[in-house]
Structure prediction request, 233 residues.
Amino acid sequence: GAGVSQSPSNKVTEKGKDVELRCDPISGHTALYWYRQSLGQGLEFLIYFQGNSAPDKSGLPSDRFSAERTGGSVSTLTIQRTQQEDSAVYLCASSPNSEGLGYGYTFGSGTRLTVV
Amino acid sequence: AQKITQTQPGMFVQEKEAVTLDCTYDTSDPSYGLFWYKQPSSGEMIFLIYQGSYDQQNATEGRYSLNFQKARKSANLVISASQLGDSAMYFCAMREGTKTSYDKVIFGPGTSLSVIP
Prediction:
């Protein structure tokens, strides 16, 4: 597609349930990133995929969070046993090649997760 | 330690005036890139401008320019001739480079800019 696509755009879930958030990057972009933005806050790095390399998971806040990227394209962020503090906008971004400092990201529109 | 500092949580500017949004950063890596992003109330993140640590000249993109002071580790964004549509959150960000790989982009806490008619 023309841009980074995220689904769903909004998700309301009950505390304790698992959720899956999907990101479809721009075709050909080898790098994919997940960030979390709580209300009125900045962007918190979660995880980063680059090609076939092992992902950088250093930002995942707990073992309830995991992500995978299949075939170097679509990525799914999974949050198990959701808690109210997980409520945030989850942003996905992709870039054509992380081997180049000058590449800015293209962001998706985000998934707004609300845990009730 | 905070890698990106934006000391102005909120700023106001009169329409058509220029405004400077401050950003300081912390890195020991000689190779890095600095970015500014805009986030309007709609929530989308819009890439504005990029400055490389080895770039000799300050970056400019239309009404946006980056005042890069390497020794001070400062990368302020200057918006000239402010427009009402410039009202948004502005994030300064940095990507550090190593000899063999490049890392994720780290974002600052943001500055909320309001343009007054």
The interface with chain A takes residues 31-33, 35, 37, 43-45, 47, 50, 52-53, 91, 95, 97, 101-110 of chain B (CB under 8 Å). Chain B has a mean pLDDT of 91.
